[in-house]
Specification:
Blueprint (H helix, E strand, L loop, with lengths): L6 E7 L5 E6 L2 E7 L14 E5 L11 E6 L5 E3 L4 H13 L2 E9 L2 E9 L6 E8 L1 E3 L2 E4 L5 H15 L3 E8 L7 E3 L5 H12 L3 E10 L2 E4 L3 H7 L5
Parallel strand pairs: 3-5, 9-12, 11-13, 12-14
Antiparallel strand pairs: 1-2, 1-4, 2-3, 4-5, 5-6, 7-8, 8-9, 10-11, 14-15
Helix pairs in contact: 2-3
């Protein structure tokens, strides 16, 4: 996926979860942060950030903050809507069957239902974006997520009922190929992930290449093999 009208700025502070103040072209601008996570290791005073100007009428802010450079140089896409867009493009390109977004399963709404042709097993997929890196690994979540717990429980229930189901981590940075449960932040997520795996839920990784104006899949062989019927 690609963003229009990208501009570079300098992060100043974050008054709340939804907005940040940046220095852009010599002026202070309040921008929308497209991620309600903590992003503490990314959004620090003086950090390089990138903005896109959607041009949507009626907005309170002119720009969206979509990427930030971590101390040490790693560029991270922080747009929480990007993982679903990237995963949707990738799934459609595989040609495995009809891709249905926002699929309701029980009381939950999961990101994708992949309806396979020719009697092959259909798939339920929930997508999570990973923006937190430590020691060359990705970690999720970076803030407690009750919604994430509900999705894991739904995937586990689906797997126990005979559905093929998986959690797909879209890794929003270069050089990271694996995501682990951030039990320091939310022990319950780690427990729920282990229970889901034990019930047969696949845990898939979609490594990506990041540019200030784009997020693209960079390595998906293992995830694609699982979707096509292989094992992890």
């Amino acid at each position: 996926m690609r963003y229009p009208n990208i501009e570079k700025a300098v992060f100043l502070d974050r008054p709340n979860r939804f907005t940040a103040r940046v220095e852009l072209a010599g002026r202070t601008e309040t921008v929308h942060v497209k991620n309600t996570g903590r992003l503490g290791e990314l959004l620090r005073p003086g950090a390089e950030v990138w903005l896109t100007e959607p041009g949507t009428a009626g907005r309170k802010t002119r720009y969206d903050l979509v990427a930030a450079r971590k101390a040490g140089g790693l560029l991270v896409n922080v747009d929480s809507q990007a993982p679903n867009a990237v995963a949707g493009e990738w799934l459609a390109g595989l040609g495995l069957g009809r891709v249905v977004p926002e699929y309701r399963y029980g009381a939950s709404r999961l990101d994708f239902f992949l309806e396979r042709a020719g009697g092959a097993a259909s798939l339920l997929l929930e997508v999570k974006g990973c923006t937190l890196e430590r020691g060359g690994l990705g970690w999720f979540p970076d803030a407690p997520t009750e919604r994430g717990l509900r999705h894991l429980h739904a995937l586990r229930e689906a797997a126990s009922s005979g559905f093929r189901s998986a959690l797909l981590f879209v890794i929003q940075m270069d050089g990271v190929t694996e995501v682990r449960a951030n039990v320091q932040t939310q022990p319950a997520f780690g427990a729920a992930l282990a229970e889901a795996r034990a019930a047969g839920v696949g845990v898939l990784y979609l490594p990506c290449h990041v540019e200030p104006d784009s997020l693209c899949v960079a390595g998906a062989a293992a995830a694609e093999a699982w979707l096509r019927g292989g094992s992890l």
